[in-house]
Amino acid sequence: MQIKKLAPLAAILLSLMLVILLYPKFRDPAAFRVFLANLGWQGIFLDLIILALQMIIPTVPFALLAGANVLLYGWSLGFVLSLSGSMLGSSTAFWLARLLGQGWPRPKVQRFERLVQKLDERSFLLVLTGRLIPIIPATAINYAAGLSKMSFISFFAASLLGKIPIIAWEAWLGHDFWRAAHHPLRLFLALGLGAIVLGSALYFNLPRRFLRD
Question: Which of 210, 75, 91 is nearest to 150 (CA)?
């Protein structure tokens, strides 16, 4: 119980550490890009692993990592890397739940027990919708899908379709967060768009309908 209570605090502290360490670097992202270029494929591999781990054990906001990718690799490659890492992690979490059965992943989706049941009925639509509702944890969807009877192909396709617009927004938000001094209006615009989407989801009670309908 104590670990569960400390986990959110640990995530916040880790996020603050990430911001403190990386924010000065992004004042001159070109120098950081040179450092990564010297790492070659190892830098990209490490990037994918970090992103994938976020889908298995979330520790820092995904937008921070997606935004960093865009700054370091450009909009196209940065987005592709973020999407690929996210899909890699989601697929891994799905198979961990599917192969390990009820014991290990079940406690991680206790609050979303209804989701596991509903995924047996309308799996593709639920996963697709869940990816588009910002406040439903991606890890809960990954593990719940693995515990359900949903096929991996259906899970992968629904996740991919749902992640494309969300990761595009997270990359935009994260990019302008790291470069807030250069793009303050764009950062507020990204935050405003996210607030509208989240507010609409809460206004129409979409999270509860997602689990009950």
Answer: 91
Nearest-angstrom CA–CA distance, 110 and 92: 20
Contact indicator for 167, 195 with CB cutoff of 8 Å:
no
Q: Rg for the chain (alpha carbons), in Å?
A: 18
Distances in whole angstroms, Cα of residue 174 to Cα of each of 144, 157, 191: 28, 25, 10
Query: What are the CA-CA distances from residue 23 to residues 6, 44, 143, 181, 193 (Å)?
Result: 26, 20, 33, 11, 24
Residue 179, helix vs strand vs coil: coil
pLDDT at 27: 66
Q: Name the domain count of the chain.
A: 1
* pLDDT of residue 153 exceeding 80: yes
Q: How far apart are CA 173 and CA 190, in angstroms?
A: 6
